[in-house]
Every structure is written in structure tokens, then in C-alpha cells.
Amino acid sequence: MSTINYDLKKIKALVFDVDGVLSANVISMSADGEPLRTVNIKDGYALHLAAKQGMILGIITGGRSEAVRKRFEALGIPSGDIYMSSSIKIHDYYDFRNRHGLKDEEILYVGDDIPDIEVMRECGLPCCPKDASAEVKDVSCYISHANGGYGCGRDVVEQVLKVQGLWMDDKAFGW
Questions:
Q1: Does 57 fall in a domain?
Q2: pLDDT below 50 — which residues of the chain?
Q3: Where does the chain bind Mg(2+) (predicted)?
């Protein structure tokens, strides 16, 4: 398993795409046409712990499902930092960065496909799952050992929290 080659002590914010990153890149459809996404429990725990530790978290997704919003709010991501129906992700990235007074080098972003590339070129630490598109891999500083929806979120969050001394402290035990 490889480690991220970046000064992870600089990272103040973790931002994620959903489909293909925190959810598998193949989804079932309900009878009414609603996408039914999977979620990875270990990704969820890591995001929840990061929120408890004071890390700034964001979601930028083209998806529109209310279930996605509810999932990430339940993990501690404020609704104002969950960007749904994001047609041009760089605009939402700028809003997130500016509202929190962050510098690009303080932001890690995980994406998997072409709509994520503009954000990945702007943020300090672009990351992707193992099964990301070739174009995304070309702009990533770190490619996770895990596929999207199968632990790549946990991989990057865990590495950041460990370097910052926030992984196995008193807050790690319990929800």
C-alpha cells in the first residue's frame, strides 16, 4: 500500500466527488428511475471521525439524490458544504474554498472522472481511486490502492488524520 507524497500537515479540508469515489461506479436504478448508490461503511466512519476532529469536509457531486445529502449530513458534513447537481464543479470548489478562507494547497480533492479534472488541477492535493479514468490519473498526485466505493475515501482520510495525530485518539472510539 502506497502513501501520499505530500505534506499532509498542510491539509485543512477534504473534498469528495460521490459517484465513482464514495460510491461504486456502477449503480442500480429503482423502478422510478432513481439511482440507488452503495456506500462504504469504513469510508463513512473515516469521514465522520474527520468531521469530529474539526477537519473541513465537502462534497461536490453532479448527483441530485436526497439520499446522498442525508448520508453526508449524518456523517457530520454541513449541508452548506454539500454541493448537489454540480454541473461545473470548479465553480462550487471556488465557493467552498473562499467561504472557508482556504488556500488551494490546504485542500485535498478526490475525483474519478473528467468533470473532476478542473478542480483537481486547482486544488493542492488531487487524489483518485484505483479505477479512475486515465485522464484523472494523469492529473492525480495520489492514486489509491482501492476502487471508488470500496475504501478509497477511507484510504486518503486515514492517511491525513494519522499524519496530523488525529486518527487513534479519544475521539476515535464511538459515534
A1: yes
A2: none
A3: 17, 112
C-alpha dihedral, 142 to 145 to 147 to 151, nearest 10°: -100
Q: In what order do the strands lie in the sheet with 107-110?
A: 82-83, 56-60, 13-16, 107-110, 125-128, 142-143
Phi-psi region of 101 (alpha: psi -120 to 50; beta: other; left: phi over 0): left
Q: How far is CA 104 from the centre of its chain?
A: 15
pLDDT of residue 26: 74
Coil, helix or strand at residue 48: helix
H/E segment holding residue 36: strand 35-36
The DSSP output letter for 19 is B
pTM of the model: 0.94
- Cβ atoms of 12 and 53 closer than 8 Å: no
- Asked, for residue 172, whether it belongs to a domain, the answer is no
Give a yes or no: residue 174 inside a domain: no
Query: pLDDT value at position 97?
Result: 98
Q: What is the CATH number of the domain that holds 54?
A: 3.40.50.1000
Residue listed under C-alpha cell 484523472: 136
Whether residue 112 is annotated as binding a ligand: the answer is: yes
Residue 67 lies in a domain: yes
- Would you state the pLDDT for residue 64? 86
Is residue 7 a known part of a binding site? no
